[in-house]
Specification:
The protein is α+β, with helices and mostly antiparallel strands and 196 residues long. It has helices at 6-21, 27-34, 38-48, 53-67, 109-122, 189-192, and strands at 79-84, 88-94, 128-138, 147-158, 161-170, 173-186. The protein has six helices and six strands; from the N terminus they run ααααββαββββα.
Amino acid sequence: MLKDNPGRKSRHDRLRKILAENPMITDSEIASRLNVSISTVRLDRALMGVPELRERIKTMAQDAMSKLQSLNPGEVIGELLELEPDKWALSILKTAKDMAFRFTDIVSDNYVYSQASSIAVAAINAAKVIIDSMRGEYKGHAKVGDVLVAYAKVGVNHEGRKIVSVRTKVGDKEIFVGRFIIEVLEQNSKEAGDVN
């Protein structure tokens, strides 16, 4: 049986904080940040009851998809990992060679935009929504093998339209910023007051 010690407790606290900041971090990256071995990270995760990355992502995606109202699951570009309807959403898109411009390893901008527009719509808690307009800026490029992390934040609601800001990053580098105006065409029946 492992004895409690202050060093392990402190490391567990730091590990919790790291995972809260980035639930998609690998054991190798955690080990580097904590300055310990990968096996120590795996042991700590086991002691804390924290699953490995693949299981964390699977659990997060299942929870997020259960809250999804505005799209069918197959319409989501990337993997929807977190969703608080009408507040915010988080998705990832793993890039592959077939997403790149011909003869390059640079991911085509239409994948970046598709993920951003998809998560903007997904963040809205309504049965039928459309993108009314969008203003965006590409700030960098993604390369084949990169993981695009898109974060959407729902802002003001005015006359049936909601403003959703989306930021897409690769690592710490922001590559896209967009502001989507989403029009709500039909509320969910529960919100509209139906009692069926």
